[in-house]
Design goal:
With 393 residues, the protein is mainly α. The strands form 4 sheets. It has a 3-stranded parallel β-sheet with strand order 5-6-9, with helices on both faces. InterPro entries: ATPase_dyneun-rel_AAA, P-loop_NTPase, RNF213. This is 26950_t:CDS:1.
């Protein structure tokens, strides 16, 4: 009960939860006078709060079993198998998994990382590649010993490269955030800067889809590719290391770039008719980045000026991957019910296979909260969307 003079009021005991968005120096939170009278409890980041699945084939178990073997220097000693008679029978304990993630994801890279989302991206992207390594007949320990007579650390080099690239993949947005904070002045209306595309070589090393035993490396500039990646690519070149040469994608013909993209993205081998599209080194890297995120079920947000080709890039990639694709053009006149109706049809269509949904011009829509939950958390009105749906904006 609260009282003021002769007035007495009974306050209900129903708890109310209000989420206030994070802002620089918590200016939005501090602008609400009522928050100064509430009891505050600071929730600190703790790696041991991560929930670890006990399913052997879950992304975190796949990643942590490889990290455990890598930590013990056993990658080139024995295969890490998740299917068949020789597969791993017992999952790693949660504490062990948390410690391995802390060691190989956070050490030397912890500044600004205090979100489970970064861990999720790292684990999902890395697991998607490691399960392909486990399924590869070429990269088994026994097969490599038959082909390479000398003692080799080929598998260790590959796993280390995949770890480093997945870490870079997950933390690139952290670097963007750091750049934004550095450029933010005391002015509340200060403009934010985003890290430019040209600031990174965008090195990617991943397994092909058409030839699962082959590795593909993509990059913007060949002279910035690390030596360990060059040595690895050279070692798997069948014609012999002396004849190997690092590809220069900036000088590669458009038809050869398309062949590279199809090897990376397509699982089928038959000819398909594709629309005309001007492929370039930058475009194929952007498509590969989008593909890796979609396969790991990580949200994809494409940024760029109006008319720069975002929609056509995702639409062309969807045709190459051979998935159903549904764009939804948003604008200020779109109602919430329009979005719900679109998603209702998409949920039914997703029963037939993988479906890509692209929400174009998302920043022009008045229902950004609904769309943010949908894209970032894969939830619509509190319910998870169909697992076959991949979301793009």
């Amino acid at each position: 009960f609260v009282s003021s003079n002769v007035d007495i009021a009974s306050l209900p005991q129903t708890p109310v939860f209000i989420e206030v968005a994070s802002t620089v120096q918590q200016k939005l939170l501090n602008s609400l006078p009522i928050t100064g009278y509430l009891v505050k409890e600071h929730l600190s980041w703790n790696i041991h709060s991560i929930n670890v699945s006990s399913e052997i084939c879950s992304p975190i178990q796949i990643v942590c079993n490889y990290l455990d073997a890598y930590d013990k220097h056993e990658i080139d000693v024995g295969d890490v198998v998740f299917h068949g008679q020789k597969c791993i029978k017992k999952p790693l304990p949660a504490k062990k998994c948390q410690d391995l993630i802390a060691k190989y994801f956070f050490e030397g890279n912890a500044d600004g990382i205090s979100s489970f989302r970064f861990v999720e991206i790292f684990v999902n992207v890395l697991a998607n590649q490691l399960i392909r390594l486990s399924s590869s007949a070429y990269f088994t320990v026994e097969n490599l010993k038959l082909m390479i007579k000398d003692e080799t650390l080929l598998r260790t080099t590959l796993v280390k490269t995949l770890i480093d690239i997945s870490k870079e993949f997950a933390t690139r947005s952290v670097k963007t955030k750091a750049a934004q904070l550095e450029s933010t002045s005391d002015d509340y209306e200060a403009k934010f800067e985003i890290v430019q595309w040209d600031a990174s070589n965008h090195l990617l090393v991943c397994f092909m889809s058409q030839n699962p035993d082959s590795i593909c490396a993509l990059y913007r500039e060949k002279n910035k590719v690390p030596d360990n990646v060059k040595e690895f690519l050279k070692s798997q070149f069948m014609a012999g290391p002396s004849k190997w040469e690092l590809d220069d994608y900036n000088r590669m013909a458009s038809n050869l770039l398309l062949e590279k993209l199809e090897c990376l993205a397509r699982r089928t081998m038959y000819h398909i008719d594709l629309p005309l599209y001007a492929l370039s080194a930058d475009n194929i890297i952007k498509m590969a980045l989008i593909l890796l995120r979609s396969r790991a079920n990580v949200p994809v947000v494409v940024m760029g000026e109006a008319g720069c080709g975002k929609s056509s890039l995702i639409g062309f990639l969807a045709k190459v991957v051979e998935v159903n694709y549904e764009p939804f053009n948003l604008h200020a006149g779109i109602k919430e019910q329009d979005i719900l109706d679109f998603m209702d049809k998409a949920q039914k269509k997703a029963d037939n296979g993988e479906l890509w949904l692209f929400f174009d011009e998302i920043n022009t829509c008045n229902h950004i909260g609904l769309l943010a939950n949908l894209i970032a958390h894969r939830t619509l009105k509190g319910k998870l969307v169909h697992p076959n749906i991949r979301l793009f904006s």
